[in-house]
Amino acid sequence: MHQMKTPSIVFCSLLLLLLAEMQITMAVTCKPTELSSCANSIVSSTPPSSLCCTKIKEQKPCLCQYLKNPSLKKFVNSPNARKVASTCGTPFPKC
Question: Which of 12, 16, 30, 84 is positioned for an S-S bond with 62, CB 3.0–4.6 A?
């Protein structure tokens, strides 16, 4: 009976790891409005807030998608937006 518990524990542990990895992967939802805390920095060249930097890091996987959107491209691809991303330690992606 003790031998039956070991495979079950291993299986449950692997399942938990897989679910945790899936949750991390699925955690990014591409919403340009998430970057609204950066708007002032992008428009006026003021230093970005810590919230702005957090949001840029969260939305980094979405930046290429935003660059393909004509409505967002001017905002996201501006020199100030690149400066804000750089200040936040988030290299701008090459799409």
Answer: 30
